[in-house]
Amino acid sequence: MKVIGIGLPRTGTTTLKKALEILEVDAEVGDYVHFIPKWEADKFILTVRKDKIVWYDSVMRWDGKNKMGVGIVHQRIKMYGSAMPQSYWMEIYKFHSLTCSKLPNCLVVCWEAGDGWKELCEFLGKPIPNVPFPHLNSSL
After folding, report:
1. C-alpha torsion 20→21→26→31, nearest 10
2. 33: domain range?
3. Is the pTM here over 0.90, yes or no?
4. Can you tell me the distance from the alpha carbon of 44 to that of 46, in angstroms, rounded to the nearest whole number?
């Protein structure tokens, strides 16, 4: 079974990647999956935040803690190819979430809403492991 994590950066993709590693699932997760010309997978997992404002605020905090001092404008250009304003990125988040959630065999998860092993394991047909669910990079 091939799985692709299709969440935007700062939506819990690092947590998803670790959880799938624990479950020993063959998966592609990370920013780069958005550049794959043709997604071929048995299942998709879309990680989302509680809302677009929470997501955008997380991106801004990440930028503020970026030790390289790149700045949000340069980070936006690096991540998305543009330095458009906040309202634009919130619409991108909304469009991405709505569009991807309509893919066949797509699970939408929100770690902030309490999703975790139960949702992932049911979707993937895996037993729930006897380890705590990983929550990585949650301080940003």
Report:
1. 70
2. 2-124
3. no
4. 6
